[in-house]
Amino acid sequence: MTSNQPPPEKMMFQLTLRRRGISNQTVLRAMEEVPRDLFVEASDRDAAYRDSALPIACGQTISQPFVVAYMTEQLQLQKQHRVLEIGAGSGYQAAVLSRLSREVLTVERYRKLADAARARLEKLGCHNVEVMLGDGLNLPPNIGPFDRIIVTAAVEQIPENLVERLEVGGILIAPVGPHQGVQTLTRLSRTEAGIERRELVEVRFVPALPGVAREL
């Protein structure tokens, strides 16, 4: 007789998120629905649901589940929102965002990662996600504005061209600090009066690099 209970590693995955303070039920549900094991390297699938970052192709990483959930929760997403993600990586964060918003544009500088993320997202039926090969730090002027922006690589300062694409009432979240070492997850909110800035928690991300990669 088969059981409807999720496997132990997925139960612990959800429990860890709750213990670490993730309380938004829609975020928890999205994290549960997206099969993280499809977004990691085949050699790391046994470790997919551990609360740790894992290496992926092109020297990049897939963020630890808590960081993905925390950043998503801090975005305060609603179903009508249009979201920009800088740094598609394996596509995992975009898949989570797709469950909570109307539309996601995710920009990736490595063709190999962009193509693989697009294939995974299509396979999962995330039809409201567009994966674009491009320079996330220097986007074309016709892209935007957005209700929410999430940067999933470290920036020494938040690029002004991203802030300018944020709608009034919008939220931008990014890891800010030195490329080598610890960054501070920072949230910007655009109000009628201007930009409000709040520093959240310390994190470690790979650096956000300019341009489209010539290889990979």
Q: Please, could you describe this protein's structure?
A:
By secondary structure, this protein is an alpha/beta fold. It has one domain: 3-Layer(aba) Sandwich (Rossmann fold), CATH 3.40.50. Helix content is 26%, strand content 26%. It contains 6 helices and 9 strands; from the N terminus they run H-H-E-E-H-E-H-E-H-E-E-H-E-E-E. Strands 5-4-3-6-7-8-9 form a 7-stranded mixed beta sheet, covered by helices on one side. The chain has a two-stranded antiparallel ribbon with strand order 1-2. Strand 6, helix 6 and strand 7 form a beta-alpha-beta unit. It is globular. 42% of the residues are buried. The model has no long low-confidence stretch (mean pLDDT 94). One of its GO terms (molecular function) is protein-L-isoaspartate (D-aspartate) O-methyltransferase activity. Belongs to the methyltransferase superfamily. L-isoaspartyl/D-aspartyl protein methyltransferase family.
Short description:
This protein has 216 residues and is α/β, with parallel strands linked by helices. It is built from 6 helices and 9 strands; from the N terminus they run ααββαβαβαββαβββ.
Notable features of this structure?
seven-stranded mixed sheet, 9 strands, single chain, Rossmann fold, alpha/beta, 26% helix, 216 residues, two-stranded antiparallel sheet
Question: What is the strand tally?
Answer: 9
Task: Indicate the structural class.
Answer: alpha/beta
The helix content is: 25-40%
CATH uppermost class: Alpha Beta
Shape: globular
Order of strands in the sheet with the most strands? 5-4-3-6-7-8-9
What oligomerization state is this entry in? Answer: single chain
CATH architecture: 3-Layer(aba) Sandwich
CATH superfamily: Vaccinia Virus protein VP39
Mean pLDDT: 94
Compute the number of helices. 6
Count up the domains: 1
The major sheet is characterized as: 7 strands, mixed
Measured distance between first and last alpha carbons: 47 Å
Low-confidence spans: none
Please indicate the percent range of residues in DSSP E strands (runs of 2 or more).
25-35%
From the alpha carbons, calculate the radius of gyration and give it in angstroms: 16 Å
Order of helices and strands: HHEEHEHEHEEHEEE
